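Category: protein sequence paired with discrete backbone structure
Discipline: computational structural biology
Format: plain text, a pair of labelled lines
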Amino acid sequence: MKLAEFLTAVEGDLLLLEKAISIGTTARVAARLIAVRMPEAIVNARRRIARKNAKKKGYTPSQAHLTVDGLEPLYYQCTAHHMERRQPS
């Protein structure tokens, strides 16, 4: 399931999301997705920037992109040998 599809299925008042997922197209890696819903003002600012950047490059941002802008994701990649915390920049 794609991330945006999953997020639209989650209740709107849920502030913290935690879910076991797998990442990768060929080699699947078990991971955990933790995401925090952002305040509406921050979400609107992110969406404005996404639309502005997309317009500059000649396209429209997808609905999936705009949906994901509503959360601040933190990814924890888990393998048998190590655990690495990844925070998007």
In short: The chain has one domain: 3-86. The first strand starts at residue 16 and ends at 23.
